[in-house]
Design a protein that fits this description.
This protein has twelve helices and nine strands. The chain is of the alpha/beta class. Helix 1 links the parallel strand 1 and strand 2. The longest helix has 26 residues. The model has no long low-confidence stretch (mean pLDDT 88).
């Protein structure tokens, strides 16, 4: 079997990088493949680069660039016929490489594992991660896009689409997936095993900050790929929600509380629809996602306004 080059972008991940690298080494041993570890550091000021080197990784220092540039620099330095991209706070299961290498070829071209959170994660981080998980009755799920927290592909697919867009602050995984699909690649998500996301949001402030940052990608993706229903759907829902909020406020100011209440109830419907679709008949999860999607729809509107005003939420590229 050819070598698998594992590229890990990092910024101040000293608390996670040792666990991440150990899990990758175990997976390589389990699959009996050679593994090249490449950590691309975005200018950390903690012990992450030193620890990564001690765990056997080649450390490249590339400060002040977006996440796509970090991944591209790692891929440029990689020598393997296979490329894997994982984040610095992701713990891959021992059967990760064996499982996905078995699925490659006759079933899919670009593959990823479902993600979960450790048990100690707060409810909002756990629920938000569970919303993207696929039901357990099927092992493989064809998907429209794959988040770049963990990806595995033959290098030719990466080269064919020219790697990640280095100009995107966030949303680079969705952009990368769209271009892969346009090139004819099949994207598959496997849920026979799950990877653990240790970089979960530990506070409401962190969750809101990350979502505000993530939602800043909509205008950039529209500029890159043009208007499409897939890219316009969520921003349109967000703008509609804000519009109903404004109408409800005006109705309340004009002494029409019943109309205001009816309009505010309407604003809850998009979030309810999204939560019903993702909760898989779990009432508790549905209620949690209903609240989170409602908040996210409002954050998206704020992010769109900030983008139009050329004000960006700053966050180091960390993977």
């Amino acid at each position: 079997m050819s070598c698998v080059s594992v590229v890990i972008p990092m910024y101040n991940e000293a608390r996670h990088i040792g666990r991440t690298l150990l899990a990758v080494q175990r997976a390589a041993h389990h699959a009996q493949v050679d593994c090249e570890l490449i950590v691309v550091d975005n200018g950390s000021d903690d012990d992450g680069p030193r620890l990564a080197s001690e765990w056997g990784a080649r450390v490249l220092t590339v400060p002040g660039v977006h996440i796509g540039a970090l991944r591209n620099r790692g891929a440029a330095a990689a020598s393997g016929d296979w490329l894997a991209f994982i984040d610095a706070d992701i713990e891959m299961p021992a059967n990760w490489l064996q499982l996905l290498l078995e699925f490659e070829g006759h079933r899919g071209d670009v593959l990823a594992l479902d993600l979960d959170t450790p048990r100690q994660a707060p409810w909002f981080a756990e629920a938000w991660q569970r919303r993207s998980q696929r039901p357990g009755s099927r092992l493989l799920h064809p998907v429209q896009w794959l988040p770049s927290a963990n990806l595995l592909m033959r290098r030719r697919w990466f080269d064919q689409v020219g790697g990640f867009d280095e100009t995107l602050r966030t949303g680079e995984d969705k952009d990368f997936s769209l271009r892969l699909r346009q090139a004819g690649a099949q994207l598959l998500l496997a849920n026979q095993s799950v990877a653990l996301h240790w970089g979960y949001e530990g506070s409401w402030r962190e969750w809101i900050s990350k979502e505000l940052w993530r939602q800043g990608s909509h205008l950039q993706l529209l500029r890159s790929h043009g208007a499409s229903l897939r890219l316009l759907r969520f921003p349109a829902l967000s703008l509609g929600t804000w519009g109903l909020d404004l109408l409800a406020l005006l109705a309340l100011l004009q002494g029409q509380p019943r109309l205001a209440l009816m309009l505010w109830l309407l604003t809850a419907l998009p979030a309810l629809f999204l939560s019903l679709r993702q909760s898989r008949r779990d009432l508790r999860l549905m209620l949690q996602l209903w609240a989170l999607h409602g908040l996210r729809l409002h954050l998206t509107g704020v992010a769109l306004l900030l983008n139009l005003c050329q004000w960006n939420v700053r966050r180091p590229a960390r993977g």
